[in-house]
Structures are given as structure tokens and as C-alpha cells.
Amino acid sequence: MAKHAKRPAEGTGEPDEGQLRGFLQTLGDAVDATLVQLVPTADGADAFTWADREASGDLARLTTGFARRWLRAEPARAGDPLPRLELAEVEGWRLIIASIQEPSAERRGALVAARPAARDWSMPERAFVEMAAALCGVVAATSEAAPSHERRLDELVTTIATDLMSVAAATIADTYEHVLQTLTEFFTVDTSLLRRNDHERGVSVLVAEWPRRPEVPDPDPLGEVPFEHSDPVFAASQTLREPLIVRPDAASSDYQKRIQDASGVPAVSVAAVPLLREATTLGVLAFVKFGDRAWSESEINALRAIAALLAQLQARVEAEHQLQVNAYHDELTGLDNRRSFLERLGSVLADRRARPVALFYLDLDRLKAMNDFLGHGAGDRFLRALAGRLREAVRRDDFVARLGGDEFVILAENVGELDDALRIGQGILSAAAEPIAVGGHPISRSASMGVAIGYPGESTVDELLQHADVALLEAKARGRNTIQPFNEEMRAKVEARSEIELHLANAVATGGLRLFYQPEFDLRDGGLLAVEALVRWQHPIRGLLEPDEFIDVAEETNTIIELGRWVLLESCRQLATWRARYPDLALQLRVNVSPAQLISKDLVSVVAAALADWQLVGNMLCLEITERAVFPDLDQVLSTLRELRAIGVQAAIDDFGTGFSSLAQLKTLPVDVLKIDRRFVSGLGADVGDTAIVEAIARLARTFQLELVAEGVETGRVIRELLRIGCHRAQGNLLGRPVPADLLASVLAGERLDVGALLC
């Protein structure tokens, strides 16, 4: 009961009503309940209720009725025990109901807690309510006793129960000793012990004792006692269900000898009470008196009640521990997770006295191919086996964690130089590459690894993790199956990238972006066919930046959605301005669309609104997508392209030929244009392979009746080859560089490109 509650009147058999409601409020605050109610078994008995301001009388009637029905329910099968705890959702409320039983197992009522259905009950909260119900059962059993020693037993149990209700895992060891001290002094015994049964190992383990022995033998004969081939007392504790009383006589000679060997005391009497959880004996609470001592029935009942409370406490602490384990460990592999890793890394880097640390960032190569072939279940088994392999490969004190997917990190402390880190990393890579048997197949996957050195007191968590990640990307770019250390060149790139990330969003919002336009000409007569809108960033310090310097950052930070929207709207506005100035202008606008934009739900509505706002026709706009944008979500891409075609907007595949996945999809992709990648165009007429590729793409375009545009035209030789192949649409610096809108005035007014002059 609550520590501040009033004691019942001396000699009465009922608890004080204020004390009881104080106890219910304490429980309600502890588990964050809206209402807590104690419902006696007898139909005519009143329920005791505590409720916060959110609760209504209807809720109290609801919980009372539910508890009455629950108490009357019979077990599903004859002979089965009645349930001790149940969860239910009733009319928008989530209830937890626990049986109030005396140590004799007689059911006296139910303890109910309720709160809104949106919030479930956690395992520690369930254990807390069950423990409170056990306390109510103890009070019910002892409150009817005569006011004397038995009344003091009631007070003892209530005091201990109140102390146990606030115990957490971190303080449980001290609590055990405090409880044993209280009980030892109350019962005037010489020592008390709490023991835990380790059923897997078949031993009884000493958890706490009072008083502590001044000299403990090594090995301690009381520390771990095997059940098998032990004396009858310890052997009985394995499955003990009822209290066991041992007094000095011939039947307990083996036990008396073990105690004498451990403590020097020749004869003792013992009361041992089991800690029970359903059919399992968790351990025993034991009291030892030097010489002989008799135990009354009321004392044994009080000890049974305290043992029940300790069993409930153990269940609650185990639930808290399991939640802690789940919060800090990866469910699939059992390794520490990202949260655990970040806390460990932060702790290590905060210790200025520590030596340098090495952070290894490991990523498997081509795990997806294995998943596609053997299934994701096989991939999971592979990752579990790899996790064990990594634990074995690292040093004893190294820290291994899984960040997610096929990404792992290893933190190695006390590393001297980079060479030491590289040797450690190479050993990890070698271990990771060893075959692992999965579904009867020996599977091996190489790994790529980045490593960065951190200096406690100087390096930060984010900085070190970013450095290792950048080094990992470099390792993958260099062909995989390798380890790459972070270096100063990468540091400069990271700093530049961080600066870009910091200011890019502001540039989009405040007008720091600029649009340049590159013309596309007809190589047969030099006429202007289209312009491609290309974004630039007028950086306040670094000057005008090309897209390659910031588009990747925009994509990774999701700034690309707003950036792409701005490019679309601004280029449509510019096209409308040109059309107003040059009424006879027949020109198509090409705008690049990122993968993120392409799969966004509102792209089509944004495009339609832009066309309507600037009074443009759909076929005046062509959206350019890359091959890599097509396949992450093919169904969504197909849906978007079909909706765009329905409003007249065309689509082009940019940089065509750099990927091969979309070749098989040309029959179904609703696209209108293929743009040949500049890497193949530049080799036309000079490289047999490039020429063959461009000729194949041209035949493919004709087969599917698609327009063909060559990018990156830089020489007259390339122009001649394009005309020979039958590709007459082209853009490139030789034909016209990207320029601001006002510098396109002459070609927009009708001036044609002199293609013949370029062939000379």
C-alpha cells in the first residue's frame, strides 16, 4: 500500500478506505492508468475505485461489470487453473485485469486498470499490476487475523510490498539485501538467503544473503549447489511447491554438514519457501536459525506472500530487461543495433584519456542477387551466420553492430596507427568472404569496407561515422571486395559536400538557383527544335555551380523535390515568355525529372497546373528521365508516364545506353524520345564499339518509332556519323552551350545553325 496511507484501526478486519484508495492511486500513477479498481468476488460487495479527471462514471460501471463477468467465468477445460491475468479491449478502453488470490489460492476479487485503447500495456506494466494484485491477496489473507503478532505480520508484508513496487533492475540487488535484513530482524533468525533455480544448468544459485558472511570460502559451497546428487534439502528446492521446514535431526544430516562446512555452525533449523511462477519453481526464500526454531502457520503464510511478491518482482524486472535488450539489439542477428552503437561510440569518443579508435563500416557486395535467387529467408539466415562470423573475427573487446540491411559496423578501441586498423580490417574482410552454408548451398559474398580513425576528445560521432561511410563508398567505387581508409582528399570532399547540404535548401527557397538553356538542333537544316532547361546554383562563395556539384546532395536530402518543382515552374514561365515575344516559335521544352519526383504522387498534378498557369499545350513539354529512375518502382513509373501522356506531355529516356535494364521494357514504357549518352556519341567514327552501340540504338528507336537525340556533340566527325546513321537531332557544346535565357534571342528569332561550317 502507499507509504503515506493511514493504518487501519487497531483490531479491525477491514483496511481503511482512504488507505486503499491511496494504494490504488499509487498504482494508477505508476502504470499511467485512467482508472484503477478493486472488485471483490462477492456480488453485493462494493468496488473500490480511483480515477483521474478524464474518467467518467460510465467507465467505472464498465470495468466493474467486466470484472464481475471475468470472476464468474469457468476455465475452458475442467481442472485447468483459473487465469491470473488477462488483457481486453472494451468500448474504446484497454483493460488489464489481475486475479486477487490469497496464498492458499482462494480468489478474493480482481484488480482492474484501464486507459484509452490507443495505448497498449507494456510487459513491465502488466507485471506491475500482477504484483499489486498479489499484494492485495496478501492483505486480504492477513487482515482477518487477530491483532497481535499476526497484525505485525500484515504490516511487515505491506511494508515490503510497498518497497518492492518501486524497484527497478538497476537497484534490485540492494533491494534484495534490504528485504532480507528486514526479515532477518523481524523473525529473529541468524541468516536469510534468496536463491535462484537455474534449470538449464541444474543448479541452485545464491542471489543474496543477510548478513553477509565475513569470510566466504573459495569456491563457495553455497554459491552454486547442483540439484543432482545433493542433500535432500537442496535437491527438493528444484521443484519445491510448498514451504519446507528443516529442524536439527537425523533426516537433515547431509544438509547440516553442508551448512557447517560453509559457516562453521553445527546445527540449524530452516524455513524455505518457494518462489513460484505457474508450474515453475523460480527459487527459494530461506531463513536459518542456529539451533532449533519452530515456525507458526501465520508466519509461514506471511513468508509465502513475500515469496509471491519476490516472484512477481522478478517477472517485472525480467520484462524490463527484455525491453532493454530489444531496444539495444538487432532482432535478426542478436548484434547490438544502431542505437546501441551510437551510444557506445559517443561514450568512447567522450573519454579524452582513451587512445585512438578505428571505425569499420562494412557492406556486403551483391546480397540482393542471393535474395533474388534463394529468397529473403535465405538472406536472413546468411546475415545471422555472418553476424556470428564477425563476432569471431574481431578482438575480444571490439564492438560489432548491425545498422540495418547488410550494413555492419565494428568499433575497435586502442588502435595505434592506420596500418594496425588496416590489418584488423583485412582479417574481418577475409572472415566475411568465407563460404556460409545456406539451404544446402555454400554461399560466399565479398564485402566492401571503409575505415576511419577517431580521436577521443576531438572526433564527434557524426563526423567519424560520416568519414567511414565516405570511405566505404570509395571502396565500392574502386571495385568492391576491398578496404578503403578515409584520407585528406576525402575530407575535403566531405567538407565541401557538408557546406553544400547546409545551404542548398536555402538557395531553393530564396532564389539562389539559375536556369540555363541548351539548344537542340536539326542537323539537316540547322533549325532549332528544342531547348533543355539546366539548373545552376549561384553560390555566394564558390560562384556558379554545375548540377554535378549539388544534385546528388539534393537527392539524398530530399531537397530534389522542391528543386525539381522550381525548375519545372520557372522553365514553363520562360517558355511562355518566349512564345509571347516570338509568336511563330515552334519549340519544345525539355526538363529533367529526378527519380524521387517521378514516383511522387503529385508530379502529374504539378505539371498540369504549370501548363494551365502559363497557357501551354502538353506536347510543348518533354520530361527527361534516366534509366535508373525507371526500375525502383516500375508500376508507379508506368502509371505516372501514362497519366502524363494523357495530358499530352512527352517523355524521354536520358543517357540511354548506360544501363541495360530498360531495353526489355521499351515495349511497355510510354516514352517518345531516346537521348544517346554522350560517352558513346563522342566515339562515333573513331571507336568501333561506340559506333556499333549508337547504330544499334538508332535501329531500336526506329523499331519502336521513337525520336532519337544525340547528346554531347563536340566534333564535325560526330555530326557526319550521326547523319549517316540517320540521327538528325543533336545537342552539344559544338552546336550551342548552355546559356541564360536572354542569350538565346538570335536562335529563337529564327537564325539557323550553319551545320556545313561545322563539318569543315
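^ that was protein a. below is b, sequence first then the C-alpha cells
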Amino acid sequence: MPANSLDDRKTCDEATCNGVQPLPPGLSTGALVVARGVRAQVETTLQHDDCCELRLLSLTGKVRQTLLWPFDRPVPLDTRRRVRVVSLRRWTQAIAHALRSHLDPLVPRASPGDVDVVAYQLAPALAVARGTGRILLSDEVGLGKTIQAGWIVADLIARDPASRVLLAVPASVKAQWTAELARRFRVDAVDVDARWMRRMIADLPADVAPWTAPGVYVASIDFLKRADTATSLLPHIWDALVVDEAHAAAAPTDRHAVIASIARAARRVILISATPYSGDPAAFASMTALGAIPGGHEAAILMFRRFREEVGDTRRRRHRFTTIRLTPAEANLQRLLERYSREVWEDAGCDRVNARLAVTILRKRALSSAVAAAASLRRRRDLLSSRTSLPRQLTLFEDDEDLDDEVSSVILAAPGLADAAIEEQWLTALIAAADAAADPDSKLRYLQRLLRRLRHESAVIFTEYRDTLLHLSRSLPPSLQLHGGLSSKERSAVQQRFNENGGLLLATDAASEGLNLHGRCRVIVNYELPWNPARLEQRIGRVDRIGQSRTVHALTLTARDTAEDLVIANLSRRLSRVVATLGAGDRLGAFLDEARVAHLVIGGAALAAAAPPSGDVQRADAVGVAETEAARGLRDRAGARGWPSRNDILVSAVQSREAIPPGCIVVFSSTAETHDGTVVARRTDALCVRAWTDPPASARAARAVAEGVLEQLPPIESLIPSLDEWFRAACATHERSTDCAAARERGLRDRMTAQPVVQPGLFDRRALAAAERRSEVDADQAALHAERIAGLERSRTLRLVSSPLAVLIAWR
């Protein structure tokens, strides 16, 4: 062995390694570099033990790449200012682009796919970019709330690819959400269900949760509320939580409990509901409190509530209540049910709540159809006669709950009268009355006449119960059906077929949320009056959407001299609260006058005023200049090609005229930046300097004139007094958003609880090992919180950077 050779152990000794080669000064955050032949900007630098991760964004704004230093070695761009002489047209285009780019820090960075850029739909994404932590998207049905939430999600992923986003949506629209994110925003979302959960648990180590990896997860709310799913889900911190049809997650429900727990562990909470307030103050307050950090000082939830008229949509809608006179048999059924309900209400036993709920459901089903009432009455009689308990055993990783429109057997089995024999006699008499009233169905006869008048025009008939739907399908022309007994794939197939071919569609409320049915239809018929006014708007909103070119007609059938007069009275009271809270122009409040007229016709009683809710909400402004300019900037950025480098100062010349005095016009760009070069706000100013009157003889002469003018100019801060005021306002806005984000991050950190003391087993150390792993995870999470809080504190202070963009020589 040669004497001067090195021992192998020395070459492999970690102590001889001095660490990763440091980055050169030109590769800091915000710097412009050339990497693999592409000009890009350094967005983030992450230091690791053996390398440094560089995340780059191309200057066109469309390509992102991640490189590892020192294996990849980007070259810093030459940052020296160069004066370039260009044509007047080129100079004008560049200045117009610069004027619109003052919103660049806020414009969503996502590259849209098959989606039109509409100004008002960018407003929520701009609010999130400004630091708003909790948003309620409650625009009128059909104005694209899914697209607005998609902008937020896509922008978040574009800014930080390591983000983790959870979308909690109704099971019926889960596939639609996944498809829309992929088609419109090129975001590949994970479709979370029982099969995915089983596969992930089988493939991952026992101590790794399925939700650990970055990405976008789409799951149904009912799947998330299961005990096994919630157990694996709740310990995680989410960068964003999106809840579709958030009104369904209001308290007091299991859905509210799980969504509230997840929202408290999310940095951003986006709620979506076209009908956020339907007249129940407690439900509205519980929904608007989702995601609020207890004891925090963050602002109230920001609600976007825009109407069609505000965004330039002048489509019309017509809705009216139609009263139907009952047959003697139907009236007899209603009277018997009223007497039976009164006896149960006064004589309910220990299960008073379920017994009263059971008779209430029977009354509702009788208002829908005698067939639906007969089916539930028979079920109730059979359940009471069997006297058996009805436990429900949950299976491990069971599938999503069906959107069923059937009545729970547990409720129908609740005894209503102390004497079981008398109750059985009552039920037998009611079944006979329901069977007698089923044949001459007054509502059905009216509906048949209506469809004949429509002359085969496409229509959607909504009913609350599947029994009524099946009854209608046997008596009406051939039709498609949408109800809770169909799988998600079957519902999607029916929706596609109806939108392609039209016809008659019979649907329960399983189809009233999230589905688009406006392709060939503009007619909605509510076979019975829903007790919740929000359902009216949800149903009509299936055809009254963006893309509907015709007037929408909606008809709600009500039975004269029945309990529906009480329903309309309650409906009117709740709509009064809606108007008091959301304004008289609210689409849901538009039903108020119709409900009042119907109540006076059917019930003949006056209405009492109702107080507004107590939810802590701040309203966002209508569509403004910022959103319009952001839309333009996004379009311009998508189509921009070959814009000059920001180091170039463009020079051109033009003959002076009345609007352009002789001299030089100098255009400046001013930015408010953080310590790492992140631009928070930008503005563009122009100054007129009377320093030149003769036309430049050549490009060299034009450059010399521009350079001379720029050298003689004093600091721009002294030339533009409003610049200092603008910078102070930008700092104040940035400090508020940063403080809000830091406060929420501290709230997420403080929610971490101390681990219980673990006693080791005599021959088994698995409990100790699990506790150690959990402590390591908590330590890493605490370090991440501390790092984010420190980063927010560092970025709290801004600096003002001003530089010339262009010079226009106006010769006499």
C-alpha cells in the first residue's frame, strides 16, 4: 500500500465533511437566475443536511421546477440596468402591461385549464392572498362558487406545492368536484372513500396516517364523521379546509362536530353555501363560527354574497305558489292524522321526542302524497307490533352513507300512545284512509294537466320522499329518476343523460345540491312545499345557473285547508329573518312576498316579525376595480410572450401634442417588499421632465438623453408626495394580515395537548416506542409552527423599492 494513500475510513468519516457548499450571493430568494436554459425567479430556498432545495418559477409564470444545490447550479442573471430603444408600439404595450401588473402579488398564480377568467370569481382568491383566514362563499345559486373555491385551492397549491388541502363535500358531488379541479385547474385530487382508506392503511407503516402526504383530498362529510376516519384525521394540521354546502354542517349534528374539529386545525377555512341563512339564527351562528380559534383576536368570517344583477347577469326567474283543492278522501286522511297527532303529542311516553317526530313525519308525508303516508303508516304498525329493538352495528371502514330519502326505522318504531291496542286501531284506520285517498290524487291530476300544457318541454319534478317519486313514475310519462338509493356513478349517469336528451326527471333532494341540470331544462315543479326555505332555492338553482339562456319557471304545489298553511306561516317567518339579515334583494328573500300571499289565502292570518341572527360576519364589497384588474392581469399573463426583463429601461420617442407636452416622461415602478424580496404591493407612476425638445437623431442619441435625464433626477420619494402615504397604507394592510396569520398559527400551536404518562409493560416496550414516536412527531410539529411564526414575524416589516421602467422622449 503506498505511503501517501488515504485510509478508507478517513474518506468516509462524516467528521471530515464541512457541510453543504453555501449558496452564492446571487441565488437568494427573489433573485433572477438561468436554470437548465430557462430564465426563472427563486421563490424559496430550503436548507437540508446534504443539499439545498431551490424552488424556481419561470418568468413566464407557467413552469415551476425544483433543483438541488450543488448538484444543479443555476446562474444568476445580470441585474445591471440596461437602456433599450424600442418602437413606440412596443413601448406602449410594455407600459400597459406594467400598469396592470400592480396586482401581480395578489393575482392567482395557478394556470387555469378549461375555465373563463371572470372578475368577481377572483375576489375570494384575492382575499385569501391578502391573508384572510376564514371565508364564506354564499353567492346566489349558479354564480360559480365551485370555481371560486377552485381558484383558492389552485392558487394555494401553486404558491406552495407542499400544501395539504381537505375538501369536505356532499357524497353526491364528490366525483364532480374531482373532475372540475382536474379539468378547470389541472389539480389532481385524491378521491377519498372506504376503498382508498383500506388501501392506504395496508400500504403505509402503522405509525403513518393516510393524510400525511401533501395534496388535495376530496371526501364526503358523512365519511369524515365516522369514528375510524375522524380518529386518523383530527391530529393533522391542514393548510386549507373547504366545506361545500356548509349549511348542512350547522349545529347540533355529528357533521358539525367533526367539521368544527377539523376547522380548528386549519390555517384557512372556506365555507360554501348558496343558502347560508334560512331563518334559523342558532344554525347560522354555529356555521359562521367554524374555524374560529377560541380566545383568538382574528376578524369575523368574510362573507361574499353577490347577486346576479351585481355581476351583470340579467336572467329572469318566475316562481309562484299554486293551491290545490283536495278530494274528500284526501281531506279525511288529513283530519284523521291531525287527531292522531294531537293524541300522540299529549300522550307520548318515555320516548317523547321520537314519538312526536314520528307523527310530524307522518303529517309531512301525507302532505306529499297518500301513497307515501300509507307506506310509512304500514311500517310504523309493523314495527310497533314486533316490539323489537333496532340497534345499528357499524362496520370497519364502511362505505359512505347513502343520500337516502327514507324515514329512520328507529323514529317510526317509537310508541306514541300508552295503550298499544288503541294505537294499532288508529294506524289501521289511517292506513285504510290513505289507501282510499291514493287513487284520486288531486296533485297528480293537476301535474298531468300541467305537463300536457308544456307540450313535452323538459321539466324537473322535486319531491321530498322516494315513495312519492315512485308513485309519480307509475302515473306519468317515461322519466328519469334521481334519489338517495342510487350510487354516485348512477346519479352522474342520470345527470349526463338528462342534460343531453332532456325529458322528464323525477328527483328527491338528493339531487338538489351541486348538480347542473340546466342543459335542456328551465322548468321546476315542487310537488310539495319543503319546510326549509333553503330547499326551494337549492332546487330551483339546479336549472337557474350560469349558462341558462331562457327564463326559469318554478311552481310549488300546496294543499288547501291542510297543515301546509302552518308550514307557509313558518316559512314566512324564516324568510323574514333572511331579508332582515341578507337584505331584501336576496334571492331567497324573494319568496317572502309569495309566501305571505299564500299564507293569507290558505291560513288567513297575519305574520309576526322576527329578529335577525347573531352570527359574527363581515360582508365583502361587490365586484370592484381590484377584481376586474386581477382578471385582466391573469389573462395578460397567460398570453404574454417575450416581455422585456425587469432590468431593461425602455426608451422611445414621439412628437409632442396637446396631451403630451415636450420633454421626457419617466415611468417609475415602486414596490413594497419583504426582507426576502417578496412583493406585497406595487404601483406605477409617471413624471414629466421638461429637458428635451429636439427629435433624437439616432438610437444612441435617444439612449444618451434617457441616461442623462435619469442621472439628474432626485430620489422619486421627493418627487411623488403620495408615494410615502401609499407605502404606509401598504405596510398597515400587510401588518394586519401578517398578525392575523401569526395569531392563527399560534392558536394551532397551542391546541397541541401534553402527552399522557405511559407506563411500560414488564416484557413489552411497544407502548414506550409509540409514545416516543408521538413525541417526535409533536416536536417536529411544534418546530414547524415556530418556524412559520418566525417567518411571519420576519416578513412583517416592508421596504420601499423604486426603479425607473421607461422613458418617452416627446420632441417638438
